[in-house]
Design brief:
Elements lengths: L18 H8 L4 E4 L12 E2 L4 E2 L8 E3 L4 E3 L14 E4 L4 E4 L20 E4 L4 E7 L12 E7 L4 E6 L11 E5 L4 E6 L2 E6 L4 E7 L8 E5 L4 E5 L7 E4 L5 E3 L12 E5 L6 E5 L2 E6 L4 E7 L10 E6 L4 E6 L5 E5 L5 H4 L11 E4 L7 E5 L6 E7 L5 E8 L2 E4 L12 E6 L4 E6 L1
Antiparallel strand pairs: 1-26, 2-3, 4-5, 5-6, 6-7, 8-9, 9-10, 10-11, 12-13, 13-14, 14-15, 16-17, 17-18, 18-19, 20-21, 21-22, 22-23, 24-25, 25-26, 27-28, 28-31, 29-30, 29-32, 32-33
């Protein structure tokens, strides 16, 4: 399936090292660190309306887009759930902007809900899916109660895709992307449904005992599983694997309700993290055990003022907050050298560039302006696997988008790297 992504390639050099990556480098394992000095955060992003209400109540997930290297969140306050805020943080510039809210999230109240755990970024596609009631002005509002509000990140536009009513059962739900089966998983009040992105087909996976509202879900990229369930008055989560087997896990130490905690996953170890008022807890998939991780670094932490997303490329979890720091990073473990191959932390003395990008049949790789010398470029996919090593003279090479075995690489984002520079190229 082709992935059409409209994005320019980010160049990493010794001239540029983001405040985000600097913060990641200084954080020790099992520690937090704020991303300081960001600009552009204004009234109307995290606090909205005439009453200046926070947009994070009844929310869990933010979204991470690896192409634009941005953290995104959209939400509405508790008392006025039709007044939306859409803060977007960009790593490269350490800056904030407000995403486009038209035509469905404008003040006319076309969509009236909270974020809950309904934000799902389809990794590497440039799309963010948000499960919402169907907008009041949509022609299928009378027959389809719920929809995907789909945000095109590079275009800054929204589209609507309605959902069959028998596949969903309410707004107090969790929507999560399961990349290994290229599907969105919907969880609410016991009902678990699957939406296949390749065929656009829905299927009901079954039902399990869980809270009637405020359910949660989260994907684990290490063990290739998803945890889902919880909700009001519930400590029960279920593990779903790539074969769609759904089994209960050990009961959590706290109720897993989006109104009282943040539920997320460390992208380096696959450890699930719960942050509630006084403490953080960890769940280990292999041992099926929960443990107390640490006391909350924020006294009397209010989950209603926060959301979270794993940031795989940097090996951290990013918390978007309505606190002293708008963006707080948590590092559970350091990345290995292999995992760092998908990050962008190396300082360079010469740039790498690839054009065209996005590319479909070839791309021309240029290395600085050093001519008459041997160059070696390693190409990695986003899992950290090296797909090809290039050796060439002068400062340019035409890559035919094939791996080391001569097969064309699959669509996605690829990292170009040598010992002095790194860059990205998008293949569709």
């Amino acid at each position: 399936m082709k992935i059409l992504i409209l994005i320019s390639v980010l160049l990493i050099s010794n001239v540029f090292c983001s405040k985000f990556s600097e913060t990641v480098a200084t954080i020790k394992p099992r520690s937090f660190g704020p991303v300081s000095g960001s600009t552009g955060l204004e009234v109307g992003m995290m606090r909205v309306g005439v009453t200046n209400e926070c947009v994070f109540p009844f929310a869990n997930d933010a979204a991470w887009d690896p192409i634009s290297e941005s953290v995104l969140f959209i939400g509405a306050p508790h008392q006025h759930p039709w007044v939306w805020g859409f803060p977007i943080y960009k790593v490269e510039t350490n800056s904030w902007r407000s995403g486009n809210l038209k035509p469905y999230f404008d003040p006319t109240g076309q969509i009236n809900t909270h974020s809950y755990d309904n934000i799902a970024s389809v990794y590497g596609s440039g799309k963010m899916y948000f499960y919402t009631p169907t907008p009041n002005t949509h022609p299928q509002k009378s027959t389809n109660s719920y929809c995907f509000s789909i945000y095109d990140i590079p275009k800054d536009t929204w589209n609507v895709e309605v959902i069959p009513n028998d596949m969903v059962s309410g707004p107090y739900s969790a929507l999560n992307y399961f990349p290994d089966i290229n599907s969105l998983i919907y969880t609410n009040a016991g009902k678990i449904s699957r939406y296949r992105l390749d065929t656009k087909q829905w299927s009901l996976l079954g039902s399990r005992t869980m809270g009637g509202i405020h359910n949660v879900g989260e994907y684990d990229p290490v063990h290739k599983i998803m945890l889902l369930g919880g909700g009001i008055d519930s400590k029960q989560l279920y593990k779903m694997d790539t074969l769609l087997q759904i089994t209960p896990i050990a009961l959590a130490p706290k109720i897993l309700d989006v109104s009282s905690m943040i539920f997320t996953c460390d992208p380096v170890t696959g450890t699930f993290i719960v942050w509630e008022k006084d403490s953080l807890y960890a769940y280990d998939v292999v041992s099926d055990k929960w443990s107390t991780l640490m006391k909350s670094p924020i006294a009397n932490f209010q989950a209603a003022w926060a959301s979270a997303t794993p940031v795989k490329e940097y090996g951290v979890i990013a918390f978007m907050l309505n606190y002293q720091w708008p963006l707080l990073l948590y590092k559970h473990e350091n990345m290995t050298s292999a995992e760092k191959n998908v990050g962008y932390t190396s300082l360079a003395t010469a740039s790498i560039n690839a054009s065209p990008s996005p590319a479909n049949s070839f791309t021309i790789i240029k290395v600085g302006d050093s001519k008459n010398r041997q160059h070696e470029i390693s190409i990695f996919d986003l899992s950290g696997k090296m797909v090809r090593r290039l050796n060439f003279m002068d400062n340019r090479f035409v890559w035919d988008l094939k791996d080391g075995s001569g097969q064309k690489v699959t669509p996605g984002v690829y990292l170009l790297k040598n010992n002095r520079a790194s860059s990205k190229v998008v293949v569709y």
